[in-house]
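Hi V.,

You were right to ask for the full record rather than a summary. Here it is.
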Amino acid sequence: MKNAEITGRMKIKELADHAGVSRSKIHFYVAQGLLPPPVRINRTMAFYDESCVERIRLISDFQEKAFLPLGRIKRLLDSVQDSGMLKNILVISAQYAGWLMSAAPAHVMSRAEAGREFGFKERTMQRLEQLGVLTPEVKNGRRTYRVEDVEILRILSRMGERGFTPARGWPTEALSIYVDAARRLARKEMSQVFKRILKGLDPRDAESLFNNTGEDIFLSLFLWMRRKAMRNEFAARVRRMKKNPRGRRKESQERATIPS
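Predicted structure:
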């Protein structure tokens, strides 16, 4: 190889020293497709591009600050080429991860532990998982719930104490309404966030998007908009029933039909 061809490149020892990782980790990243393969001179000598230093640092930051798995990091690096945009995404992801850590207790619970803690039977937990209300992580046959699911169970327990039970017309299956609504809302919100990223989102905006204060604001906005929509929908249905008494049977059928 000519000298010009190795300009801007470094041996694995230099790369390891600059990036602060071991040689074995570099080999692992190459094998996983997280780093481009080096340019080989012969069987024992290879040169890595200098850009690998920043790429390794980004991988480490996404792991340590945003708690992303390597598979997700690879997909992200493959789809976003601009380093500035990647740094913006890192800031947002790290802020979001930090918000999740502070939003609820950091420990996870097994299904059995959660059932005992919040008073739910095994079949109820299974049904909540089937509906998508709970999404446990399964490792070595053990199902565990992360902080979001733990808080959802805590709220469902409180709802039961306040009378939201199947016996009073509130079947477990009705929760699928909120699962579907939350997924649609999340897709639309993330679409807006990533449109802003593509337009050069300032990393300083991330804190206002994902910290506790921002969450409280959006939650309040959603609750008031939902209350208004529920009031308007209730009034509209009452008007229709008054105009068409036969429509009462249809309203009754709608109430009896719960999505599953």
